[in-house]
Write a structure and sequence with these properties.
This protein is mainly α. It contains four helices and no strands. It has a domain of 66 residues. Helix 2 runs antiparallel to helix 3. The radius of gyration is 32 Å and the shape is rod-shaped.
């Protein structure tokens, strides 16, 4: 999907969208009720809550988009640990374990000293 296109299926299935839509409708209805009854304070509160609900929705969508971008750009790392028990005389053993393994490398052979 192109970056400029809106995924309506995802947008309409978003809980944040429906909560914002319900808050916006409640704000509009309380604003209309306030203006209809002559209560200007209630009308002003309804309008302010409508603006606030839209701002909260925009912030939530931005946070979701940022999280989605970060999740898609994360690289997976595999960490392998290996425990080696050796004395100070076993330098060859420690060196062979810590060196990167190559396909041509065979098991080390210990020489008698």
């Amino acid at each position: 999907m192109n970056d400029n296109q809106i995924d309506w299926k995802q947008k309409l299935s978003s809980r944040v969208f429906w909560i914002c839509f319900a808050a916006f409708l409640a704000s509009i209805s309380s604003g209309i009720a306030g203006l209809g009854t002559g209560n200007e304070v209630l009308g002003g509160i309804g309008m302010a809550c409508g603006v606030v609900s839209a701002a909260i929705y925009a912030a939530a969508e931005k946070a979701t988009d940022i999280a989605r971008i970060n999740a898609s750009s994360d690289t997976k790392q595999t960490v392998m640990t290996q425990q080696v028990t050796a004395t100070s005389d076993d330098m060859y053993t420690v060196a062979s374990v810590l060196s990167p393994a190559t396909p041509s490398q065979q098991d080390p052979v210990m020489e008698d000293e």
